[in-house]
UniProtKB/TrEMBL annotation:
CTP binds at residues 103, 113, 148, 162, 166. Pathway: Cofactor biosynthesis; coenzyme A biosynthesis; CoA from (R)-pantothenate: step 2/5; Cofactor biosynthesis; coenzyme A biosynthesis; CoA from (R)-pantothenate: step 3/5. Its EC number is 4.1.1.36, 6.3.2.5. Residues 10-218 form the DNA/pantothenate metabolism flavoprotein C-terminal domain. In the C-terminal section; belongs to the PPC synthetase family. In the N-terminal section; belongs to the HFCD (homo-oligomeric flavin containing Cys decarboxylase) superfamily. It comes from Propionibacterium acidifaciens F0233. This is Coenzyme A biosynthesis bifunctional protein CoaBC. The chain holds residues 188 to 411 of 411 of the full protein. GO terms for biological process: coenzyme A biosynthetic process; pantothenate catabolic process. Residues 15-224 are annotated as: Phosphopantothenate--cysteine ligase. One of its GO terms (cellular component) is phosphopantothenoylcysteine decarboxylase complex.
Length: 224
């Protein structure tokens, strides 16, 4: 947990963390989003900073304002988050995508409020860009990439598939069916998955999970 890690073991590293949820507008009064308070991402940013890293935080919609970092970029949509990550990732040694990025957005954003009618409504959606897959395909020399995975079933199989398909080094898998895990709680139960193996961590605070994730990132960097 906090305190067990050597102080300053991330000194000299530039770390980019994304946190919170994207918002995809439907019309001036409505939008699509995902559950996310941003707290896991904030805990990662804070832990990285405490361990000596220079931290850039890209934050979508969050329950509380982001903590001060070396740089903080606020974004709304997945497309805006993509551009912020594209900019900030070019000289980052470590990128951690803790944000809940919408997979789909409305194909058209209505300029005027959509009025209800008597019948059912259909909303046409299109895919957003997969930011983490883009990072995996455009990886800079010596860059380490970490993602998160939310699943309600087949946690390890599905999460390992994401690790491989996105071409990343570490995925932090969240089983939403486990008590104490997931949204709106201060704790988390996660499995850390790398190409070599996997470790299920016991129930821990988000800060403790953050420190374990950063230690696993350092281990992945050393093993390369
Ligand atoms: N992610 C991303 N860009 C997207 C969607 C997801 O960068 N457009 C990132 C998330 O930030 C997370 C990882 O990909 O680090 C996995 O997100 P998750 O939603 O669990 O998986 P998906 O690949 O989107 O697959 P699905 O939602 O279908 O399970
Ligand atoms: Ca998704």
């Amino acid at each position: 947990g906090p305190g067990d890690e050597p102080a300053g073991d991330l000194a000299g590293l530039r770390v980019l963390v994304t946190a919170g949820a994207t918002i995809e507008r439907i019309d001036p009064v409505r939008y699509i989003t995902n559950h996310s308070t941003g707290r896991m991402g904030f805990a990662l940013a804070q832990a990285a900073r405490d361990r000596g890293a220079r931290v850039t935080l890209v934050a979508g919609s969050t329950a509380e304002p982001p903590p001060p970092m070396d740089a903080v970029v606020r974004v709304e949509s997945a497309e805006q988050m993509f551009h912020a990550v594209e900019d900030a990732s070019c000289d980052a040694h470590v990128v951690i995508m803790a944000a809940a990025v919408a997979d789909y957005r409305p194909r058209r954003v209505a300029e005027q409020k959509i009025k209800k009618t008597d019948g059912p409504a259909v909303l046409e959606l299109e895919r957003t860009r997969d930011i983490l897959a883009w990072l995996g395909a455009h990886r800079r020399d010596g860059q380490t990439l970490c993602g998160f995975s939310m699943e309600t079933a087949d946690l390890v199989t599905n999460s390992r598939r994401k690790l491989v398909e996105k071409g990343i080094d570490l995925i932090v898998a969240n089983d939403l069916s486990t008590p104490g895990a997931g949204f709106g709680v201060g704790t988390n139960v996660v499995t850390l998955i790398t190409p070599d193996g996997q470790t299920r961590l016991p129930l821990a605070s988000k800060r403790e999970v953050a420190d374990q994730v950063l230690t696993a990132v350092l281990r992945a960097r050393a093993g390369r």
